[in-house]
Please model this.
Amino acid sequence: MARALLVVAVLFWLFASPPPTGVVGAEGGTADQPDDNGPGADAGDNGEGPCGRQPGDADQVAAVRALADENCDCDSATNHGKYVGCVARVAQAAVKDGSLREECKDDVVHCADQSTCGRPRALTCCRTDAHGHTKCCIKPRDAACRAPKGGSACIGTAASCCDACSSGTCAPPETTTTTLAQPPTTTTTAEATTTTMAQPTTSTTTTSVPATTTLGPTSTTTATTTTAPPPTTTTTSAPPPTTTTVAPTTTTAAPTTTTTSAPPPTTTTAAPTTTTTTAAPTTTTTSTTTTTSTTTTTTPPTCESIVPGQPIAGAYRQTVVAGPKICDTGSTNQFHVCNTDTDCGSCPGGNPGCCAQTPWVTVGPGLQPLPTGITTDFNVAASGSFPTCEHQACIQCGNPNAVCTGVKSGCDAAATNPSAPQCVQSTCCDAPGFHLPALQINLGLFRICTRLDQIDCGIGVVNTSNPQSGHNEVKKSADSLAPGADCLYASSIDCTGNTVTNPGDTDDGACQADNFGKIRTCRGADVNPNPDTEGVHVRLSTPGFATAWLIANDETCPSDAVFDGRHCNNTHTSCTMDADCGGTPGSCKPADSLFSSLYQIAEPTTAGATGEFTSLKPGDGCGLGPGSQGFTPSSPSGPIVVKADAPKPHPHGVDPGTAAGEGRTVAAGEAFSPQSPLFDIGFVTVTEVQMTRTGTAAACSCTPTPICAER
Model:
């Protein structure tokens, strides 16, 4: 029974977590979240807005990327994850020194992530469809860069998709053709009459008129006129002047270069003769060349919508609905669609029911159904940039330090008995975006009620790139070793396998099952270097905590149930005596009995998830706390890789608010607990979801503060 009670205690906080992060942080996780440990708040719009809204954003991003190129050599990189981590550290340093806005850090890191750096033989591929829309993706080899139907494909010109297809098309380069008009040739034969006389000296001079060249935007005209004056003879009439005209030559070339050669001057001296000449008529031919220029305008490609036919920016709601049966964690064919237990092979522990209707959660060795109707309201303020098309999501909170009226009086009552379980906190958001109804579970003679409360704003992404280029798989690695008051280990292993030190740290605690430990969250290429499967991917995270308490047989657990102190039976009105509740004997009930209060750290995603207990501090030899159940009896430490049929993106071009457009999110995570007999445990969730656009985007700005285990 105690195991079942703990399952209930963590049942509802399966979507709560610190913010999703995209780059390697100081504690080894990939961290969009800030490093400061000050109180989190739903800060509201600070006036700066997302990257690209401020005039200097583009220059800042370009400068930091150039700095990253100097410090993180793409050509010599042998590991993509380490390369991205190097760029992330450069970007984080720029944020700290003020040369890059926090909102632009992800743009720098994303360009590194969507690159071939550290990926041997990989290349950027620019694919242009029949409508002229060009998208970039990373391909492992030349042959994989194939053209879409009716379109074209070419190898990118740079290592990163942010630069590789900047021309926006795969059209062949322009060619230049030069056509020279040949001048017409005229031959004139004159009949000559010769009279023999004394031989006077006759001089004939040919004068070459200088060539005239006219340069226009697209043509050059060269004309040469040569006139020979008539010879003078004492006894013979001079022939009329003869004019030779060279037809204009027109050269059409590219606008950039025009070369014109003038004909050299010519002088002709005739020997002394006595000649009578009758000249034939002179014929002049002129040719004209006309050049026509055509201008083509190409519309820049845009990202695919989240909901077909609707703007990307807007308010959205993700709703958990009933899904197919899927084999649960630890079964032989875990995470595959099934009809009966037989399809799952053997069930964990030999217990029947491992072919379970989704949504469900496994906590340690136990399987528990989840309710439908769980909702997450989030805002997408603006479209992400093409072709990555990763749109930032924000989940509102309101005031995170408001009194949590749903648990406050019960937590205060529990505090009067220090030896009993205590609430992890009694403050929460007063305008949460995450909504989960309370649930009652009957366990023989005992009944338990659980509720969830959001404690900070949340963030996430919706990726509509097509072909899909995002990396939204999540891996959470936990260590039961207590980190001490500073919430950090003296040294820890980051997502790239490097060791990060925390000089001066001396307060790391013991390896045991309690409420303390560390969790490292990795995302992106560090988890899976290949892009996510085709479709629209969603990854959301909302921090919070779950509270579970025992209720009497004559009490109920409504969807808005509260955990309170001494109260009137079934009304939850505060009381000190029966008279306060109308005088009925026994109507002023004692305070509810707290069973557990736990932070839960999960991050549902449509791409896939991994959970494990491992040593995050080099040489600590801890990982899973002694005596703890972990994930499953056969694999307590994991890793548990939630793939196969469990995760499913929303299909491209289909309304995600319909049955045909549904997706499926998965999460894997860990919880540190002093409760016997499970102690520290691992959990896995599988939930079928729909997504609807509910209106225009509301103001939402989020910089959540991670809980101690995730710092």
